Amino acid sequence: MILQTDEQTIDDLRIFGKRDVSGIYDLYNHTHTRGGEACLEEMFRQPLSDKEEINRRSSIIAHFAQLQVAFPFDAALFDMAEKYLKNGDVLSKNTVQATLSEKDIYNGVTAVIGLLQHVHRFVEGPAVAGIAAYARERTEIALLLADPALEPALNESMKGKLSYGAVTAYDLLFRTRERQKIIQLLGHVYILDVYLSVAAVAVEKKFVFPKALDKGTGILKLDGVYHPGLKNPVGNDVSMGSNRNVIFLTGANMAGKSTFLRSLSTALYVAHMGFPVAARLMEFSVLDGIYTTINLPDNLGIGASHFYAEVLRVKKIAAALSSGKSLLVIFDELFRGTNVKDAHEATVAVTRAFAGKKNSKFVISSHIVEAGEQLQQSAGIGFLYLPTRMNGHTPEYTYRLEEGITDDRHGMIIIRNEGILDILQKGRKSQD
Fold this sequence. Notes:
There is one protein chain. This protein folds into two domains: 31-205, MutS, DNA mismatch repair protein, Chain A, domain 3, CATH 1.10.1420; 211-428, Rossmann fold (3-Layer(aba) Sandwich), CATH 3.40.50.300. Helix 3 packs across helix 12. The protein is built from 18 helices and twelve strands. It has a six-stranded mixed beta sheet with strand order 6-7-8-4-9-12, sandwiched between helices. Strands 1-5-2-3 form a four-stranded mixed beta sheet. A two-stranded antiparallel ribbon has the order 10-11. By secondary structure, it is an alpha/beta fold. Strand 7 (327-332), helix 15 (340-355) and strand 8 form a beta-alpha-beta unit. The protein is elongated.
């Protein structure tokens, strides 16, 4: 089962980097092979939505992190083996000899033999054999290696140079008769590459392994969650349940609302992959989908304003909710694209409707304090804010959540501190 999401959410969370800005994928990518990189990208594009599978993957990575197992294979072997196997079936292609030289074939054969022997030693080692959650993969690998056709390769001494006859026989075996088995084994090693690289990230960054709970129980508990891309992060505690499934978030510009929304939604997204997250503790009910709206662009292709793009976004999420799905929904400054009166009325109406969807969770940030005050009469809505402390005429931010609603507004102070009005006035006077 796959967690539902969309490109808007993937872009909001900066899952993948753009231009010179790295993404969450890059932070976890310590893989050693191209195949491992591809598997990691696929995992990021298809988070899980099954409690057992999430916890199983998490347990595997956590055990590797605890054992601090290093990737046991030489990446150069994979380059040679992949180049060799990529050239296909020697019986069905007459141009193979023109594509691969004798040296390429010899290197490819020895690389595959080396990988087979390395994989066999690794999965039979006591550390790996003791990881219960990895038993399924280990059994699949063992069954592939148990094929009698591969026995000569597993027993090959590799102390001396292989004879021409041996290379020819192995070449026929690897690229024709048992090619699919070799490719399947490589696939297992690529996934293993992901597990070990993510385990190394968990150790290096001191990330925590979340516990996935049954879908529909409505539980979310995060202690010290922060954004994994920050150098000096401030952690925050968040707790939600069926009795409080909506958070209405307020705070001044630059107080950290968008960063908190990304921290929370990134943690839940990555947790559904079975990966460790940037927090001290995390427990969560498994969701059907995650949808965020943090950087919603105007849809110029259909001539839509920002407000209409917001309306279409809310409509899409409403349709998903109406089917009974359990979602995390994030809106950063809901209905910012319209006037204050309409935004106020729409924010109150939509937020109240969200509160009625008890098996889903919602975080709505807003500058419209009056909407928050009106929503305090509604059940199921909690109120958090990010405060601003004034040091003379300079605003300072704690980035720590507090209970309640704030009416902090420091936009004009920042404008004055930057001297914008003085620049404009001086410019006008100099023209007079």
